[in-house]
Amino acid sequence: MSWDHLQLKPQIISAVQRAQLKSVREVLCVSGPDLQKMTGLSRSDVQELLHAAATASRTHQPVTALQLQQGECHRLESGLRLSTGCPVLDQLLRGGLPVGGVTELSGESGAGKTQLGLQLCLSVQYPVEHRGLSSGALYICTEDPFPIKRLQQLISEQSVLRSDVPRSLISGLQFSDHIYIEHTADLDSLQVCLSRRAPLLLAQGLVRLIVIDSVAALFSQEFTTPILCINQVTDVFNQSANSLSSSSSSVCPALGLAWANQVMVRLMMRRLQGKVFLGDQSSALRRLEVVFAPHLARDSRDIGVWREGLRAVLDPD
């Protein structure tokens, strides 16, 4: 395509052509820092390029057909769930994470929240008959670097965790190719990611799961996508006066009632005393609890984190 119609400065057009970026969509599918590396442009020039590309995308992108089909998609997929990869946890959640809604996973540092987020990024790539959504995931990091080594370990152990899936299918899935990673260090960059790149990836069908580690704006209603928001916790000083917290915890999810009203499902993960064992592995005992959800009972399951991922512990003793 010609970039001249975007009315960009000549040096920006030349840099984009040298980087062999041939379309608006290709530009919008690359983060700002990566665009700087690819093109050698300054930060202000990259922002100008992204703004122009986003404007052109809104003008020319055929989103209308998707919007016209929105009601039908909601009707057909109202009962669709994304598996956690563990049958016992799926039972707790009546099949897994609901599409078209926001699931908040809160807990203290080291409780295992990111582990579940990574596991869902792999689970979403399985076909629907294996409780996936046949698509990729967008993982937005707002604090820590993306745990790439742990992801690679989970990928290598998928045949252990998902023994219900044929090995030939697992080996044919290129898991790492379908996880899109964004780093947002401040509110401005988070807003850019959520307002530009995420809708484009969703509209193109490249992702069907968004994980924000931690906290997010919402795209679930338009794209029938499960959103997992990882949240921190704060101390509870008056347990009886706080309905947001777990019944068995002295902490509650951060951000309070205004944020709570955006959440369809609230889960809490805690690290408990003691260890559990599986073969040659050991794990700190953890617990995943349903704090509230319109379709779920308030219940919990004990879990461990293993090489292959997060799984329920049926008998901690």
What integer value in Å does the Rg equal? Answer: 21 Å
Mean pLDDT: 81
**Which outline best applies?**
elongated
How many helix segments?
Answer: 14
- For the biggest β-sheet, the strand order reads 5-4-6-7-3-10-11-12-13
Helical content stands at 25-40%
CATH architecture of the largest domain: 3-Layer(aba) Sandwich
Named CATH topology of the largest domain = Rossmann fold
End-to-end Cα distance:
64 Å
Could you give the order of the helices and strands?
A: HHHHHHEHEEHEHHHEHEHEEEHEEEE
Largest sheet: 9 strands, mixed
Name the CATH superfamily classification of the largest domain. P-loop containing nucleotide triphosphate hydrolases
Uncertain segments are 60-78, 216-221, 237-243
Structural class: alpha/beta
Strand content: 15-25%
Total tally of structural domains = 2
Protein name: RecA family profile 1 domain-containing protein
Keywords: ATP-binding, DNA damage, DNA recombination, DNA repair, DNA-binding, Nucleotide-binding, Nucleus
Main location: nucleus
Family: Belongs to the RecA family. RAD51 subfamily.
What is the element layout, followed by pairings?
Layout (H helix, E strand, L loop, with lengths): L9 H9 L5 H5 L3 H8 L3 H18 L3 H5 L1 H8 L3 E2 L4 H6 L4 E2 L3 E6 L5 H11 L12 E6 L6 H9 L1 H4 L5 H6 L6 E5 L3 H17 L3 E7 L6 H4 L3 E5 L1 E3 L15 E3 L2 H5 L4 E14 L2 E12 L7 E7 L2 E4 L5
Parallel strand pairs: 3-7, 3-10, 4-5, 4-6, 6-7
Antiparallel strand pairs: 1-2, 8-9, 10-11, 11-12, 12-13
Subcellular location: Nucleus
GO molecular function, one term: four-way junction DNA binding
Family: Belongs to the RecA family. RAD51 subfamily.
